[in-house]
């Protein structure tokens, strides 16, 4: 059922805020969390959560050229030897992981991200996958195995290897089909190229395809993005991730090549968003959380309707994990009571591994209060509600008493119709779901007053 959204209310409440792929957010990670801290965290996890599934994330950081909009951690290179060198260091990291944790626990999710994973050729992708499966041999029969793909760097040999290695989900970086937009973000990939890539994936039996799209890019308009959506529907991906472009040139140098005067106004961005939601609903896509869409038959839609969505650094998922193991440069790992991130620069990453040390750059140990607030924020972000009884039983608290000041802060949002609070729960309205980051921020004890330069706007 489609719930109407008051789009006029959204612009009034857009402000900088975290995306809450984690809590605490990555801005709170610190260097006191090191390889020793991670080893201790692994030991606790192996003891407490041995019967829980693992998620694996492997970062393949290389790109041949810069996409000006991109906020990912990447290395631009055309040198082939860098790939082989990186594979050797991945092998070293995997050997250390095998010595540091129980790698025989069941794996329920495995993802290649980047960068451009398909910058690596078919044989190299096979080698990396085999190394990982040798280290973590217990992949479940229903394991979600996915890879991000750049249609500009994608061959049948690569697709054949991915299929042979068990990959069953593909995510294509599409962004926008408009020629002028593509030129000004330095990513030229015509519709025909994406179409042939999708056809290739379907040929090899891939029945779960995602497209990443971005609104708010230079020279985008209501009309141009509507045309992009029409093209998307022709290719019929099962899922869509449609992100609000965050222009942060003080963080990402490549964004300085974008002329800010060519970006759509906040009013036009909001209209693009409204048109997108209405168009996709009319074409049988269900809105998932704040930035994902899925066909109504897709497992994400089913999980949403059951109140079983989860969210991590890879986005929304149907599976809950006690632990995500990050592998490779800049990768982030997560446990019940910690987050960890590998080094972002190659020299530090390699030096750590040469010294037989896990390449940890930073992280954070979560206090009991952090774990509680993480659960509250993720419940709101995932399912747009908070069940007080479930929280009370899990954490031995009384929600209404514990969060009395937060509930007081939420009263203005209640009056605006963004949510309702009664003695049993918080329920977020359709309009409130679009401002879910604003609602979650009320429970974030780490937020500082001046966050303008740290986070993108919530709408």
From TrEMBL:
Q: What is its EC number?
A: 1.3.98.3
Q: Which PANTHER family match?
A: COPROPORPHYRINIGEN III OXIDASE (PTHR13932), OXYGEN-INDEPENDENT COPROPORPHYRINOGEN III OXIDASE (PTHR13932:SF6)
Q: Which residues form the Radical SAM core domain?
A: 48-283
Which residues participate in S-adenosyl-L-methionine 1 binding? 57, 114, 148, 332
Where S-adenosyl-L-methionine 2 is bound, by residue? Answer: 69-71, 115-116, 175, 187, 212, 246
Q: What is this protein called?
A: Coproporphyrinogen-III oxidase
CDD domains, alphabetically? Radical_SAM
């Amino acid at each position: 059922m489609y719930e109407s959204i008051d789009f006029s209310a959204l612009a009034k409440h857009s402000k900088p805020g975290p995306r809450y792929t984690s809590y605490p957010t990555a801005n709170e990670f610190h260097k006191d969390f090191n390889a020793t801290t991670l080893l201790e965290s692994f030991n606790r996890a192996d003891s407490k959560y041995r019967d829980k599934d693992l998620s694996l994330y492997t970062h393949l950081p290389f790109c041949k050229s810069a996409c000006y909009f991109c906020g990912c951690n990447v290395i631009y290179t055309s040198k082939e030897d860098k790939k082989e060198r990186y594979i050797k260091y991945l092998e070293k990291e995997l050997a250390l992981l095998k010595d540091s944790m129980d790698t025989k626990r069941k794996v329920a999710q495995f993802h290649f991200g980047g960068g451009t994973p398909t910058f690596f050729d078919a044989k190299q992708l096979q080698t990396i996958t085999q190394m990982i499966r040798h280290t973590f041999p217990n992949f479940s029969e229903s394991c979600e195995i996915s890879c991000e793909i750049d249609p500009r760097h994608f061959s049948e040999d690569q697709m054949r290897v991915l299929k042979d290695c068990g990959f069953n989900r593909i995510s294509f970086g599409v962004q926008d089909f408009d020629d002028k937009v593509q030129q000004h973000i330095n990513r030229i990939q015509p519709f025909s190229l994406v179409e042939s890539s999708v056809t290739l994936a379907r040929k090899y039996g891939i029945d779960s395809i995602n497209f990443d799209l971005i609104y708010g890019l230079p020279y985008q308009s209501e009309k141009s993005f509507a045309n992009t959506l029409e093209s998307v529907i022709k290719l019929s991906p099962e899922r869509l991730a449609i992100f609000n472009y965050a222009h942060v040139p003080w963080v990402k140098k490549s964004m300085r090549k974008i002329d800010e005067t060519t970006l759509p106004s906040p009013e036009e961005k909001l209209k693009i968003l409204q048109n997108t939601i209405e168009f996709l609903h009319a074409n049988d896509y269900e809105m998932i959380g704040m930035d994902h869409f899925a066909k109504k038959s897709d497992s994400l839609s089913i999980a949403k309707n059951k109140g079983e969505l989860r969210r991590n650094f890879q986005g929304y998922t149907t599976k809950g994990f006690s632990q995500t193991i990050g592998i490779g440069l800049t990768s982030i790992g997560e446990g019940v009571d910690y987050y960890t991130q590998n080094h972002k620069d190659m020299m530090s990453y390699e030096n750590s591994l040469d010294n037989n040390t896990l390449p940890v750059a930073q992280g954070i140990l979560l206090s009991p209060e952090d774990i509680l607030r993480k659960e509250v924020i993720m419940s709101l972000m995932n399912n747009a509600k908070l069940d007080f009884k479930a929280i009370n039983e899990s954490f031995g608290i009384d929600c209404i008493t514990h969060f009395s000041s937060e509930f007081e802060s939420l009263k203005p949002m209640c009056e605006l119709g963004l949510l309702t609070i009664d003695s049993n729960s918080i329920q977020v309205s359709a309009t409130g779901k679009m401002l879910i980051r604003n609602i979650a921020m009320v429970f974030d004890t780490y937020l500082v007053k001046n966050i303008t330069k740290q986070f993108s706007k919530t709408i």
